[in-house]
Design a protein that fits this description.
Distance between the termini: 15 Å
Order of helices and strands: HEHEHEHEHHEEEHEHEHHHHEEHEE
Number of strands: 13
Radius of gyration: 22 Å
Strand content: 15-25%
Number of helices: 13
Strand order of the largest sheet: 1-2-8-7-6-3-4-5-9
CATH class of the largest domain: Alpha Beta
CATH architecture of the largest domain: 2-Layer Sandwich
Largest sheet: 9 strands, mixed
CATH topology of the largest domain: Endonuclease, Chain A
Helix content: 40-55%
Length: 332
């Protein structure tokens, strides 16, 4: 319930968003700035971002004082070095909380799009570093306190910052930034916290997996492929254990149901794809795992139903015969 209250409070602080929709946008003037682009230049709160957007990321990092929050599925050393460089230059390594929400599944590491070593090293320099594993993360969002937010297609990689054609917006209006932060603090609470020690251990495991993966690709021997698949499953199991270290899948689903219902009533069949998108590892229809006596996989819809009934008995949600709704806290 505390999670719901916190998110509701953040949303109330962000109710002034719509009154600013009528404002025009400003783009950063390039060498081939058109007349139309020049006409929409003067504005204060919204900036269009085009590749490369490293200068815009530097602006955001330069405005951080207390809390940097990042949601991004792919992160490599080129990105973590930007964070480390800016916070170090400003003497804020010991002062700033850095929260990163990302996808640590081994497939990302094997594909070369995630650098766990770089994240582990970054955490070594920042005492107040929080790494969260949320497999459903696909957004690329960067938030500096409640001063500035960037919402973009660009990952925190060299290609995402400089090489690819990326596009996005930077926002400086406090009410908008507050709501973005509130949303992603909510997503952060739904993931699994990964300590620096666990990240380092996972990194070692991933390096071994990479070697086995390379051997399995080059070899036609069934034994090499079998060994790789066994180690891959072992790594998945380790991450699943971390995902529910603070509770069962039922408790994870209960928090997620409350989070989703903050936006309004939903039918169960509407909830299912939303929950599966946030927790694809807990809602995998293709497998049926039992880890430490806890079931993961094909029975996830049954677990969602159990979570719904538990929340209903607790008076936290209600069902009108068609849709589920969040019970608003009573005024004291």
């Amino acid at each position: 319930m505390r999670l719901v209250h916190a998110i509701q409070d953040r949303r109330r602080r962000g109710l002034g968003i719509r009154e600013n929709y009528g404002r025009s946008l400003r783009t950063r003037q390039g060498k081939t700035c058109s007349l139309v682009t020049q006409m929409i230049q003067p504005v204060q709160d919204v900036f269009l971002l085009r590749s490369p957007w490293t200068d815009d990321l530097r602006d955001l990092l330069s405005s951080v004082e207390e809390d940097l929050l990042i949601g991004c599925p792919y992160i490599k050393r080129a990105g973590t070095e930007h964070i480390l460089s800016q916070l170090s230059r400003r003497g804020l390594l010991n002062e700033t909380r850095v929260g990163i929400i990302t996808d640590l599944r081994p497939e990302s590491v094997l594909a070369g799009s995630m650098d766990l070593d770089a994240l582990t090293e970054l955490g070594g320099y920042i005492p107040n570093f929080h790494l969260t594993h949320l497999p459903g993360i696909h957004a690329k969002v960067y938030v500096a306190d409640v001063k500035m937010a960037i919402v973009t297609s660009g990952n925190l990689t060299h290609s995402g910052l400089r090489g690819n054609v990326e596009y996005g917006v930077a926002l400086r209006q406090k009410t908008v930034v507050s709501q973005i932060r509130g949303d992603f603090e909510g997503f952060e609470s739904l993931g699994a916290g990964i300590s620096r020690e666990d990240a380092a251990a996972l990194s070692v495991e991933m390096q071994d997996l990479k070697k086995l993966f390379s051997r399995a690709q080059k070899s036609i021997k069934q034994q090499a492929r079998k060994l790789f698949e066994e180690r891959l499953e072992k790594t998945h199991v380790q991450l699943l254990r971390r995902r529910v270290s603070a509770g069962t899948p039922n408790s994870v689903f209960a928090d997620t149901i409350k989070f989703l219902l903050l936006k309004g009533p939903l039918r169960t069949e509407q909830m299912h794809p939303l929950i599966q998108a946030i927790h694809p590892d807990l809602c995998d229809d293709s497998v049926d795992r039992t880890i430490d006596g806890v079931n993961f996989g094909k029975k996830w819809k049954h677990q969602v139903r159990t979570a719904q009934q538990h929340l209903k008995r607790q008076g936290e949600i209600s069902f009108d015969g068609e849709r589920w709704s969040l019970e608003r806290p009573r005024q004291q």
